[in-house]
Amino acid sequence: MSTNGLTEAREQELRKQRGHRMFKKGFVTQLQNQDFLWVQSEKIPEQGYVVDIVNCRCECPDYQRRGKPCKHYYAALDEKTEIIRKALQIAVNGVKI
């Protein structure tokens, strides 16, 4: 159990949910290097974190402290998945996948 009484698995699931919500709100921007994305902070809109999607790393305090995927990583993963899905749609001439 963690310090707030939730199991680690439940805490991770909540991070995934928060990340998905951030993705849906448009908090993620693809950077010029295709492996990196910028995710806006929920608390401080003018602040954000760079996420290395390939190596599963983020600049945020949560990742720096725990060394495990954070909500920013999950938001970036959703964005990257959407980018790939759209590219595949174009590649198969508009046939939805």
Explain what this protein looks like in three dimensions.
The structure is a single chain. The chain is α+β, with helices and mostly antiparallel strands and 97 residues long. It is built from 3 helices and 4 strands; from the N terminus they run αββββαα. The chain has a 4-stranded antiparallel beta sheet, with helices on one face. The protein is globular. The mean pLDDT is 90.
* Secondary structural class: alpha+beta
Q: Give the helix level as a range of percent.
A: 40-55%
Sheet having the most strands: 4 strands, antiparallel
Low-pLDDT residue spans:
none
Gist?
This protein has helices spanning 8-24, 61-66, 71-91, and strands spanning 28-30, 36-40, 48-52, 57-58.
Write a concise keyword list for the protein shown above.
4 strands, 97 residues, 3 helices, alpha+beta, four-stranded antiparallel sheet
